[in-house]
Specification:
Helix content is 58%, strand content 3%. It contains ten helices and two strands. The chain has helices at 2-11, 32-60, 72-100, 103-127, 131-146, 169-175, 196-204, 215-232, 244-260, 279-286, and strands at residues 183-186, 190-193. Helix 1 crosses helix 9, helix 2 runs antiparallel to helix 3 and helix 4 packs across helix 8 (215-232). The longest helix is centred in the N-terminal third of the chain and has 29 residues, at 32-60. The chain is globular.
C-alpha cells in the first residue's frame, strides 16, 4: 500500500490552481527577462553537472554501504545543495512564471515539451520490443506536431491515442536486465541511479531541442522546459512528508520500478504476517 501511495504522490498534481498568496517578483527588481537569463544560466550548470556525474560513475561504483543507498552521506549533501537552489532560485522563478502566465498558455507550453519527448519514448519502446507503444508514441508525435501546431494542442487524445507513460534509455537497460545500481543524487539534476545517469547522454540525442543550431535559443528553450516542469510540480510539494530526502528517494526508486515493469508489481501483502489465508473460509464464516 505504501508503495502505491508513493507512486500516486509522484503522479499527483492538483488540477485546481489557487491564487498565490505573495507576489513572487515584488521588491526583487526582477522582470521576465531577468528570470529567463537565470534559467539559461541554470541550464548551462545542469549540463556541466551531467558531464561531471557521468565521469564520476566509475568512482562511485566502488563505494561501500547499504545495497539501496550506499552513498547516502554524499547524496544527502548534494540533496541539501539542490534543495537550497530550488528554494531560492528555481521554485520562486516557477511561482513567478505561474503568476504571470495564463493557465491555457502555461498548459500549451507544457504540452509542447511533452510532445517533443514522444520521440525518445517511441525509440526506446522499439528497443524494448513494445511495438504497440512505439506506434502510439510515434502517432501522437506526428499528429500533435502537425494538426496540434507543434504540440500546443493535444489532438491525438480525442482521436483515441491517449498519452502513454514515457520511456527512456535507462528504462530500456532495466528491461534488458541491467540492475539500477546505487541510488545517486546529481547536482541540479536530482535523483538518479548509477545505471540511469550515463543514459541521460544517450537520451539527449533524441531530444529535438538539442538540434536547434542557435545556441542562445537552444538554451532558452531548455530553460523554459525546466521552468514549465517545475511549475507543474509546485502543488505536489505539499505531498512530501517526513524526511524529505528519504521520501524523494523512495518515490523516485519506486517510480522507476513502476515504469520499467509497466506498472506490474508482485503484491506480497500478507505473506509474512498473516500466513495462509483462504478467502473461502472467510466467506463461509461470515456469510448470512
Amino acid at each position: 500500500m505504501r508503495q502505491r501511495s508513493l507512486i500516486r504522490a509522484w503522479h499527483y498534481i492538483f488540477p485546481v490552481r489557487g491564487s498565490l498568496e505573495w507576489p513572487p517578483l515584488q521588491g526583487t527588481g526582477l522582470d521576465l527577462m531577468d528570470m529567463m537569463d537565470m534559467m539559461k544560466s541554470l541550464t548551462s550548470l545542469r549540463k556541466a553537472a551531467a558531464v561531471m556525474a557521468v565521469l564520476a560513475c566509475p568512482l562511485l561504483a566502488e563505494a561501500e554501504g547499504s545495497d539501496e543507498d550506499p552513498l547516502e552521506g554524499f547524496n544527502r549533501a548534494v540533496f541539501a545543495f539542490n534543495d537550497v537552489a530550488d528554494s531560492y532560485l528555481i521554485s520562486p522563478v516557477a511561482r513567478g512564471y505561474r503568476a504571470v502566465t495564463p493557465d491555457p498558455v502555461e498548459q500549451s507550453v507544457y504540452r509542447i515539451f511533452v510532445n517533443a519527448s514522444e520521440v525518445n519514448s517511441a525509440f526506446n519502446s522499439l528497443l524494448q520490443a513494445k511495438l504497440g507503444k512505439a506506434a502510439r508514441h510515434s502517432g501522437r508525435f506526428l499528429i500533435n506536431t502537425t494538426l496540434g501546431i507543434g504540440g500546443l494542442i493535444d489532438v491525438a487524445d480525442p482521436m483515441g491515442i491517449p498519452r502513454d507513460e514515457p520511456e527512456d534509455f535507462g528504462q530500456t537497460l532495466g528491461v534488458w536486465g541491467v540492475g539500477s545500481g546505487p541510488y545517486l543524487v546529481l547536482p541540479l539534476l536530482g535523483p538518479s541511479t548509477l545505471r540511469d545517469t550515463p543514459t541521460r547522454y544517450v537520451d539527449s540525442f533524441l531530444e529535438p531541442v538539442n538540434y536547434i543550431e542557435h545556441v542562445p535559443t537552444r538554451n532558452t528553450v531548455h530553460g523554459v522546459d525546466l521552468l514549465s516542469t517545475r511549475a507543474e510540480l509546485l502543488k505536489a510539494d505539499k505531498l512530501i512528508s517526513g524526511d524529505k530526502y528519504v521520501f524523494t528517494r523512495e518515490v523516485y526508486l519506486q517510480r522507476r520500478a513502476y515504469l520499467i515493469s509497466d506498472g506490474v508489481f508482485e503484491d506480497d501483502f500478507g505473506d509474512d504476517d498473516y500466513g495462509d489465508f483462504d478467502g473461502q473460509d472467510f466467506d463461509s464464516e461470515y456469510a448470512d
